[in-house]
Structures are given as structure tokens and as C-alpha cells.
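Something for you to look into today, if you have time. Just paste the record in under my message, thanks.
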Amino acid sequence: MKPRLFIGSSAEALPTLNLVKNEFAAVADCRAWPGIFEQNQSGLASLLKEARVCDFGILIATQDDLRESRGTSERTPRDNVIFEFGLFLGAVSPNRVFLLAEKGAALPSDLNGITINSYTLELGKYNSLPTVCEALSQRIQALANQSELGFLPSTALAVGYYHNFVRPLCKYLHHDGRVYLQNQDKLMHVEKFKLNVLLPADLSSNGVDDFVARYNRHHKLQAAATELASSQKRGYPFHFRIDPPDQDLTRKVEVQLFDVPTTLTTIAKSIDLCLDSSSIGKDENKQYLKTRELANFANVLQTLVDDDDNAKNSVEIALNIRL
């Protein structure tokens, strides 16, 4: 899935915008400003919505206006371009929004001391438009594989899920290994295990509880926990199957554990609140955000697992799971 890239400019700079759009077409799903404004909506409302559903932004600052300031004349970008740069900078991330400034354009003094991507339309120059875009393209590709704390919660949820479930469960099973079958109070000793973290292909607005119940039933998984239900100690519940299935349960066994993080429900609810809609039907932006947040959840969790000696060879994360 390509990251979404918003590209904005003044009306006068549309030819340059189209050149920039072509430069990034291979690495991003480019969404240019003339096509993002919705019918019967204000321009600001459309821009705010776009900032919520895009991963990156590029604003093109060209020499559109002549400004007299303190006795000198300057060629400056259109005010709306600077406004939109600030809007996306705050809504998306300072690391993921870039100003592409035409050489010679006078920028606001607030940007003094900040590295700006200055370009010229003259080919063959060190700062020609294709050269500058190529550098930004590489930057976007690198950042697309990284995670940040953002408006939507997948990064924080993945960190919480790891520290509150994956990490302590893996540590317990490696160092103790005693688990109790649900409703049987029957003790089983685990020698080897694989924890399969399952992320649904389609995240329902109602959450993941129904998916969990149907998956466990379909695959005939048994419920167990690290503590008895009557215990005062905190236990970690999970579903599992004996694998291979013909093992002697009076001895230590190898098992496959399965868990669908119920915390994923928070992602679905947050997206519904973020993009409130009065219509019924599939919403492209909501679906994109759900897919993006699930992928980010998996990426963050994998990073944490890879740094954990108890988990890195015992946990597998599976995306796009269907019933």
C-alpha cells in the first residue's frame, strides 16, 4: 500500500504541481489540491479532512505575489500556500510535511534557520526540480516504514499491547510454562510455543469481539490462562491448540497460541470519531485509515518483539486474516 501524499500549490503553480505529482507517482498515492475539495463543503473543512487521511504533504511555494515591505519589494508565495503548509505541519507531522520553495521566493521569517527544499525549473542544476524531488522521494520511502505517535492511536496501542500482554506472557511461558485449561482447572505444562498475533483484514466498526469468537470456534481453539480464574494473581488468557495434536498431555507439550488484540477496537472507534459520516456505505477514507493503522500496529509490535529475547523467536504477527 502506497502512502498518501497531499500536494498543494497556488493556481498559478499548477503546471509545477503536475510535474511534482509525476515525480512522486511511483512512491505515493498523490492527492493534488484541485481534486480534494468536496461539494457544499468549505475549503478549510476539506483541507482538515485531507490532513487527517494523508501520510505526507508537500506544499509548493512559488513567486506569485509582489510585496512591499520596509521599503523593499519581494516576490512571495500565495498566502494560502503558507497557511496550508502550517496546517499540514501541525496535523500530520513536522517530519512528514515539506515545503518545496521556488528559488528566490521570499518566505516568512518564521522559517529562517529551517532547511527548506529550494528548487529551480532549470534542468541540469544541482537543485533542479527532478533532483530535489528525488531526494524527497527517498525521504518519504524511508519514513513510510517508520512509526510515529500521531492523531490516531495505533502506535500507542501496539506499545501497550506488547508491554501488557505479549512481553509478560512470553516471559512466563519460557520461565514457568504452567497453564490452566478454562473451566477445567486442569494443569498443562508448555515446553515450546508459538504466539500468533492475528490482525483482521477488515476492521469492523463494532470492534473485534465477533471476529475473535468466530475465529476461535472455526479453528476449534481451546481457552486457557496462566492462572486459575479463582486466583488473586493476574493471569494472561489466550486460545491455543496442541501442535502436533497427538502429544501426551501428562508431559510437557508444544502449543500454538492465537490472539486477536481486542485493543484494535479502539482504532475502529477513533476513526469513526475522526471521520464522522452521516451516510451509510463504504467510506474510502475510513477504509484507508483502518488499513494504515493496522499495518502501523503490526510494524510497531514487530519492532518491539525483535528487541525482546523472550519474544523474538516465539511470536509471529499475521496481517489480513480472514475468516
User: Anything to note?
Assistant: The domain at 154-321 is CATH 3.40.50 (Rossmann fold). Helices lie at 14-24, 43-53, 79-91, 129-144, 154-175, 209-218, 264-274, 284-306. DSSP finds eight helices and 13 strands in the chain.
